[in-house]
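Lab meeting minutes (informal)
Scribe: AK
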Amino acid sequence: MLLTVLSGFAAGAVYKMVAPSDGARRPAGQADAGAVEAARAHRAGEQPRELRGPAAAPAAEPSRDGEPSAEPEGGNGVRLLHGADDDDSLDPLGMKRKAGMAWRTPGESGSPTPAAGGGHGAAAATARSPAVEKMRQAAARGEPIPPLSHSEVSKLQEPDIRDALQALESMPWGPEASRMFQDVIARWGQVNPSAAMEYAMSLESLRTRNSAVGSVLDTWSRADPRAAYDWFSRQMRENPGSVYGATRNLFSNMAHQDSSWALQQAWSLQDPGIKRTAVQSIYDRMVRDGQGDDLVSMHDRMASGPDRNLLSEAIISMWTPYQPERAAQWAMAIDDIPTRQKSLDRVVSSWTADRPSEAADFVLTLPEGDQRSRSLAKVVDTWARGDVEQAADWMARQSPSPAMDPAMQSLAQAMIPRDPAAAVSWANNIVDPKARERTLSRAAFQWMQVAPDQARAAIPGMGLSPQMQQRLLGPPAAR
């Protein structure tokens, strides 16, 4: 008797796992065809068959009330395996499937086949996750879904992965649901990447789809980069937008296995943006894998042009944290002017964060012009924000000149919030009249806020125009 009651209770719990299309929970005893099949399998001691979407659903069995219970159509959130109607509690831009997309069970015509070595077989089919079972039970009772940890996800096989996605249907779309979804879809990419990718590509939300594709392709390419690249190549021909966000990790993983092969594939890409991302990610991986000398040798063999400049950027990034002088010299040798300026700015910025006086001395060796003035201004600005006294000492050793004006402005502006009076003194060293008045007026305005009596006494002697003095002090009658 007790066994009968428990079996009935378990079957009843299964009946409640799929919410009806209007978002309300079915009354007890009212179930859809998939739930009836799951209950039948439970009573028979079998694993229930995978539930199918409306396009592949079998004829509905009678419910306990004797009426047919049809599978609802549509889909929202992670109601992907059943295709339930939209539920306002879930983000409509979350994991809704494209119109007309129906779930297919493994082995069904046209469905993905299990990947070799993916952990399938009798053992994988019967070993079920207690954590996922708790998720299913919570969903059946309408309770919050217990979190699925990274460790628990790492042990899931395909039946549990599908069940986990099904259980997530009762969870509102938010950071926690998104985190669990990404973990589960990434795990699926390890277990059966072709099936996981078909699932990911069926998502309607472009943002969620791209994120899922990226997760699957990342895990897939770690295990089998050539197979992952084959899929990527097909998508580049048929649907390039779907792989933009997955390019970096894919080619990094390809390079970790075989950097020469990865570069051959990257150079053959037609899309300039994807090609640049792919090549840069390969170079970054080669640096991390200790192949920096190979990059330098490759650079020496290449003709001048955009490809060589891209390689120079990678080498510069490799040297910047440890050998900034060497990185700066490489940056100066880049042919393309915008690329050279950008690379030099990055080197100088990193160098300033570590050794600002050396960075400033290096910038002074650059040819006089806009590049030097702009770089020096950035060095002094960063330096003064961290140690204004040392920056001021270095600037005091330089002779005022139009070329030094940007750096002098940076120092004066950095001093304004701390010491407006000192900022005024430094601003008076600016050679250009317009830049000097602009900086002096800012310092004077700040000075008026913190020490108005001192500022009023000093402003008439700053050399500001009568109009600026009037703006700062007000009309004579108001003083």
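Next up, CB showed the second protein from the same session:
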Amino acid sequence: MHVAMIGTGYVGLVSGACFADFGHIVTCIDKDASKIERLKSGGIPIYEPGLDTLVARNVEAGRLFFDTDAAKAVKEADAVFIAVGTPSRRGDGYADLSYVYAAAEEIAALVDGFTLVVTKSTVPVGTGDEIEAIVKRVRPEAEVAVVSNPEFLREGAAIEDFKRPDRVVVGTENERAREVMRELYRPLYLNETPIVFTSRRTSELIKYAANAFLAMKITFINEIADLCEAVDADVQQVARGIGLDNRIGGKFLHAGPGYGGSCFPKDTLALVRTARSAGAPLELIETTVKVNDERKKAMAHKVIKAVNGQDLAGRTIGVLGLTFKPNTDDMRDAPSLDIVPALQAAGAKVQAFDPEGHEAEHMLKDVAFKSDPYDVAEGADALVIITEWDQFRALDLDRIKLLMKKPLMVDLRNIYKPDDMRARGFTYTSVGRGSV
């Protein structure tokens, strides 16, 4: 089948490359000419493990193409996917749908014959209705079915998530559209992947509800971690104890500095705004947003307390990890963007390292960026782990101790064991496990 993917951001590029690997002919389209030229020359604008190899293989096989002009690809397409950004709108937190609607207008003018217009972008309930209205206004005679097909890709594991998903959700009541979507995802039938067909509005809400629930789960265990510190309990053992209950599950029960990234912050906020507008406020999600925002700032105070309990004037703080999670270069709403400035405001000099957080150099001011964890440790009064990259899990702690002014570590991801840190002579603070 022929697929046109409007947008070569994280969702569009991963989805396009994976559809091509399924055997479809895919053209990824973007108005950013420099990005398209980079992709044509073999460059990848985002960091996602395995994506460079996947793209190269399908380009070489003649199944994956890149272009700034949508005309040819849309005319030939059986399905045109909208995979553009839906950032939070400034001022009110609603999802900014201007890119989605602009794409819909462009697609409507170009379609030829029966075509699916599929929203991969995360969009509020009712967006598909508006896309359908735009198509009818621009081309009343067009044979178009508007379908919702939300993505559930985890950054750092997106290719695996696309090819071996828990489920595929398709929102349409058009049987012809269902058949096209079944054919697009036919390779997944070998894995017996559930394909859930719903109404379009239901599909749109499923995506937001899923992200909001996971964000709430993270926030829940973070608050339990605070309670554990107050009553001398261990949050990791609590998480294991409740996670073994099949009704709860162990995923997303890892205490830390709060959630970030491209999805949870904007999607929870957009869902809150949508619910308020519909007259059905979601107080649990509103509280989740508030608690998560406060938590990131509280983590800086945790560091200050661990160092001396007052201020950090004249102190050097080493920071390991800046991206919102490992195996991605995504800095959007990363906890480090709140923690580092707060440490600096307390008087600290900050030196940091992240394997892929190059964008941090443009987003964090007056930070000394180092080449590896040991450069970060050199001369530091404290070492703070914000992102749990694998290479931080097996540091040469004896070397780290010799390099630091004081052997003090604040581990906001609980990747080390308190007893081990005690044995090596470290003063060690983690989340929900007390201090050593």
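CB comment: The CA atoms of residues 172 and 200 lie 5 Å apart.
No objections, moving on.
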